[in-house]
Amino acid sequence: MEFMPTKTIISSSYKENQHWFGINYNMNIYKGCCHGCIYCDSRSNCYQIIEFDRVRIKENSTDIIKKDLKSKRNKGVVGTGAMSDPYNPFEKKYKLTREALKLINENRFGISIATKSDLITRDIDILKKIQSHSPTLIKMTITTYDDELCKKIERNVCPTSDRLKAIKQLSDNGIYVGVLLIPVLPFINDNEENIRNIIKSAYEYGAKFVFSYGLGVTLRQNQREYYFEQLRRIFPNQELDKKYIETYGESYENRSRNYDHLLKVFKEECEKYNLLYNMKDIIYDYKRVYEKTQISWF
Ligand code: SF4
């Protein structure tokens, strides 16, 4: 394992990012991610993460996080899981995310975690403590209902069925949890059956919301090349890369060709199961019980 020096781990979120699940600060203890999602945007050149699939640890993360939290004038929600999954396989041994959560609890900050790993259930005890005083939001990413497809496109992390079980465990423990249905991959999982099954399961396993955005996938620079290479490997003879080029050229946004229909299905299904799907509603809902004690949560 490579440890890399760093000065800060918890940084202030850009104002516009606060619309993203109401996050005030960003935290990345690990650099790179080995979960192997074929579409991962963090591979893009613009982020300058060399050898993205190799996980590195930021040195002395616990001491730095302690200092970072003390230096913040305002309490807020710390978001993690944007450029690297905080529950990668190394977290089992190093427990750095767990240590960070303990500090977040001690300093009375809120937390918002995005992950694809069921390892998060290990930390339910601390998440419950944080939620007792501050907003706590868990986003479990699920892109396909089909475990076999999941093992191909997100090959180094637990499959959908295990993520659903993790949602159930979190929910049974009273933790505010929902599903991130991002991305939707044209020609692969952009079908009605997949959307319906994910939303129905989210409901059955205790999720409070399902959030999706754009019903497509973003592709740029080297990330596009990597994605096409993986499509050729996983789906040989289907010429999916050619289909993408014919349909989208080099565009950044690659929306499902069934966008209008899928969006209608998505909204109808969420409403049927009483699941939130608008960002504003989700932010309001997971923070509202803290409104009286700390108006700044909004
Ligand atoms: S889990 Fe997230 S950060 Fe890791 S490879 Fe997948 S999309 Fe990228």
From TrEMBL:
SMART domains: Elp3. It comes from the Bacteria. SUPFAM superfamilies: Radical SAM enzymes (SSF102114). Keywords: Iron, Iron-sulfur, Metal-binding. It comes from Romboutsia faecis. CDD domains: Radical_SAM. Transmembrane segments: none annotated. Residues 19-250 form the Radical SAM core domain. PROSITE patterns: RADICAL_SAM. This is Radical SAM protein.
